[in-house]
Design goal:
GO molecular function (chains A, B): aspartate-tRNA ligase activity; ATP binding; RNA binding
Number of helices of chain A: 14
Keywords (chains A, B): Aminoacyl-tRNA synthetase, ATP-binding, Cytoplasm, Ligase, Nucleotide-binding, Protein biosynthesis
Subcellular location (chains A, B): Cytoplasm
Oligomer: homodimer
CATH architecture of the largest domain in chain A: 2-Layer Sandwich
Structural class of chain A: alpha+beta
Helix content of chain A: 25-40%
Pfam families (chains A, B): tRNA-synt_2, tRNA_anti-codon
CATH topology of the largest domain in chain A: BirA Bifunctional Protein, domain 2
Main location (chains A, B): cytoplasm
Largest interface: A-B, 92 and 93 residues
Shape of chain A: elongated
Number of strands of chain A: 21
């Protein structure tokens, strides 16, 4: 072993990675104390390593390393022939067999001078205990090799040859607890730096501060119940380590499932996927909160929703359509609910007799999602809850779905809500606090975290919402609520051009202004069937379902007014 | 019947809709002749209708209309109780049963004064012949009703009650040829205008001119083998009618299938979906051809590919990932191959031993797509070929996939290609004519339209392409070819930060410049496994497979330097 490779002092608590606490990346300004501490620790470790190295040099003198071909910082010259295995696949049949695998070094811990425990991890949480034990004759595994393994920086990617063994008792700290790997060879494929921006242990905990502001004198790292955490900003600034955390993997799995369950349900109901454009020629929905860009000699805008395009599809004879893709909002809202770019799950369908056909279809798809998660993602949800606690998401019993009209909701708020809502009216939109208060009342009364609020007032809806033919003050439009927060907006659309012109004018807009004219023209150009639909924000469904502190933990690369990186 | 509703004269050839030829929307400038002709036709039709109406008035005098409740331009006051049916579902069990349905009036044709044939169509090509025959006593269906039906403008959306019958002989002009509907009620839900921007018949044919230029004195409509066609611009400017054409539906089905086959294959291989951002903080790949926009106090760019983000996913411990979403190119290229926004199908995966693991995975997914299309989309492909002829897409026999190195491809071109390619070298990228010539040679030699070109020269690849460890002049990177055109670019990526810095510098870039530094930092921050991947343009795969004249027929809403609408 080269003396230029310092060994590391490793804490004995395997739950905390070396340097897992104070080493984790502090915010730029509030970091001095943490940094000083970290330097001190590093220095201590270095000295310990030097002492150890000196002792080793003394004891083994210039003893020949009989295992020097079996480890190293580059790939071996001769290929390993043992079969490749993934940690998630290890089973009884592999016991006493030699295998090879690629994995990250998650942790290492010396046991005397002759043995090293090294935790190896594949995607997500698939970790196993590796054992590197020097043989008596120094062949196969030497003392030098044991020491060298302890010096491999954490989160390095390694190639390993090992024999699968049954440990004396299950290895509680690893997901693969019934087996361990007795390493015979180990090579670094890609080394990690000595100091990580954020350690695996800290990345695996809940985020601390959510805001992106750097506050003078406030340290990034917070001690939450004894364990250090890092701010959301530090997590996001270290995408590789943030993404490696088991909780991140589990949230990803849930998000992927929500999208798949949405698409699969609709496909089974005859919906066809299409792709609306992101670049559009005019700010279609009023012009506020829209990103604008130079487009050759013209200007273009980024679509705020696929609304118009979903309707064009219906006009083009596609009976039922859905789309999944990014939508853009130039809102300067720095809250845990907002992003400037997010993935929308949208659908639109022909109506035969009544717009509740659409409402029930959307209710069906959301219940399918919630039931699918509860059934098949129990492990992921439990893992996420161990980091971000939440109560079980309550669903209505089949056939007992809760559907209130907006007026009924307001009446409930007036009668049983907090005193400040004693005089809410049926004509104004609900505020977020009103929504939350109503959500609490509905939960108490009907034992569900999911319900529908139908017949929104005309003033609370855009021009394409169809007024109720029997009550001109309300629309055939609804919101869906999760834990007291709006998760879906939808309804029946105006499908006759003269009615559309009237609703556009009633909102103070001109049916012939750019961006709106082209839309009305489609309805003027052919007969368009009655239709309706709805749209969901993917990240919000996941965040509200899991009661996460922010949607920024759900999106792969969240975009906010302050964040365009990574 | 109100005399303000003119009846229409309908040509007897059902394949040509009324006004199907000269009525179709001409380009703005070159339209005068067509317009004059159309006016003349319309005037002729109007006069004929007047004559007919006068004759009818004479014969029946002010005879009472005993069927007046059974038709009209708005929905009936009493609901129709017959079960709803979709045209695609009509079967023997429905014969002699009364049903209701919603459909478009595709065509109508009078047979004497007492009978009208009216073609009704649902999504795509699902058309059926409707019969409206006046009863002797004028109850149920009256002569007035028959006439009124003939006056319903084509492409209006109607509600119909009818009895399913077996026709005397199959109705060749309709896809539902074994049944016909004897109408008892018909109401217009949404009327189409008298004059369509483009008729169903013209929309159903191949597009004429592809370019978006308006050429003085050139008419939009071209007569192709006797049948009028409209330009691509006219098609796209009439999205509802363009989309209603059976060929558009069929292309949509193929495009949907390509995306689904891509995703399903990769999911089955353990790939996880993620969503890269469209908004990015710096022009990452050199800065050319990138859209820029104001982003609060900063600037943002639209992503040209998910390349960096796919790699971040690998760094974050996701072994295999894929994504489907829009990418943006600010190229002022007005060709049938280019769009400024298109849907990319991308994947990235860890490599165990050799980058050909990735190449074979991509080969597998493309062959899965091609075989899936050939197996399950025969009807759609045949329909498309009836409009856009193409030769069968030749695939290699299983186990006989064709993989040439770039140098082998150039050698083949030199030896057997056209004389102008007699001195092509191994260090320069191939031009499009070279690619096409090589495609023809490969087809002749190996009987396949699909093959792989591996080991591209370093100069033809971006900085993230890994140089071949055994030959520094070439890379571990490949293109996939379809009918002699590149359809996929991919390869192994540099995964070690110091090597990445070197390749970045070799391209004349600075590893610490904005947009590149953040990328390199991710490789500096952890150990990143060896990995590789590739990306496909969804619309191009479909267009090349079907040999369509332009990718703009595949995208739902194509975006070009000249087109941001609809």
């Amino acid at each position: 072993m080269s003396s230029s490779e310092p060994a590391k002092e490793v804490p004995t608590d395997p739950a905390i990675a070396p340097g897992g606490g104070e080493d984790a990346a502090p915010s730029k300004k509030g970091a001095k104390k943490a940094e000083a501490k970290a330097k001190k620790e590093a220095e201590k470790a270095r000295k310990a390593a030097e002492r150890e190295a000196a002792a080793a040099a003394q004891s083994s003198a210039a003893a020949e390393d009989l295992a020097k071909e079996n480890y190293g910082s580059s790939l071996p010259s001769t290929k390993i022939s043992a079969p490749y295995i993934h940690l998630r696949d290890i089973a009884e049949e592999h016991v006493d067999k030699v295998v090879q695998l690629q994995a990250w070094v998650q942790n290492s811990r010396a046991q005397g001078g002759k043995m090293m425990f090294v935790e190896l991890r594949e995607e997500g949480n698939w970790a196993v205990q590796g054992v590197v034990a020097a043989t008596a004759d120094g062949k196969g595994v030497s003392k030098q090799m044991v020491k060298w393994v302890g010096g491999v920086s954490l989160e390095s990617f390694v190639l390993v040859e090992a024999t699968v063994k049954k440990p004396l008792e299950p290895v509680k700290s690893c997901k693969v607890s019934e087996y361990e790997l007795h390493l015979s060879k180990i090579y670094v494929i890609a080394p990690a730096p000595e100091k990580l921006g954020i350690t695996f242990a800290v990345a695996s905990r809940a985020v601390g501060r959510l805001d992106e502001e750097e506050v003078e004198g406030v340290e990034d790292l917070a001690i939450t119940e004894g364990a250090p955490t890092a701010s959301l900003a530090t997590h996001l600034n270290n995408p590789a380590m943030h993404g490696r955390a088991p909780v991140s993997h589990a949230i990803d799995e849930v998000r992927i499932a929500v999208e798949d369950l949405f698409c699969d349900y609709l496909k089974a109901q005859g919906f066809k996927r299409f792709h609306p454009p992101s670049l559009i020629g005019a700010a279609s929905e009023g012009g506020a909160n829209v990103f604008k860009l130079a487009y050759f000699e013209k200007e273009a805008y980024l679509a705020q929703s696929p609304q118009f395009y979903k309707q064009y599809q219906i006009a083009a004879g596609k009976k039922r359509v859905f789309c999944v893709g990014p939508v853009f909002r130039a809102e300067n809202s720095n809250t845990p609910r907002h992003m400037t770019e997010f993935i929308g799950l949208d659908m639109e369908m022909e109506i035969q007799e009544h717009y509740h056909e659409v409402m029930h279809m959307l209710e069906g798809v959301l219940l399918h999602i919630f039931r699918g998660l509860a059934k098949d993602y129990r492990n992921e949800i439990e893992l996420i809850r161990s980091v971000y606690p939440s109560e079980e998401f309550l669903l209505p019993e089949p056939g007992k779905e809760v559907r209130l009209t907006f007026a009924e909701g307001q009446a409930l708020l007036r009668a049983e809500g907090p005193p400040e809502f004693a005089s809410v009216t049926d004509d104004e939109d609900m505020s977020t606090p009103q929504e939350k208060a109503l959500g609490a009342l509905v939960r108490k009364k009907y034992n569900t975290d999911f319900y529908v609020l139908d017949k929104f007032p005309v003033d609370a809806r855009p021009f394409y919402a169809l007024p109720d033919p029997e009550n001109a003050k309300v629309t055939n439009a609804y919101d869906f609520m999760m834990r007291g927060q709006e998760i879906l907006s939808g309804g029946q659309r105006v499908h006759l051009p003269h009615e559309l012109e009237a609703t556009i004018r009633s909102k103070g807009l001109d049916p012939n202004q750019p961006g709106i004219k082209e839309y009305v023209d489609v309805f003027r150009s052919v007969g368009v069937p009655p239709h309706g639909g709805g749209g969901i924000g993917l990240d919000r469904v996941v965040a509200w379902y899991l009661n996460l502190p922010t949607v920024h933990l759900v999106a792969d690369y969240p975009r906010t007014p302050k964040r365009l990186f990574p």
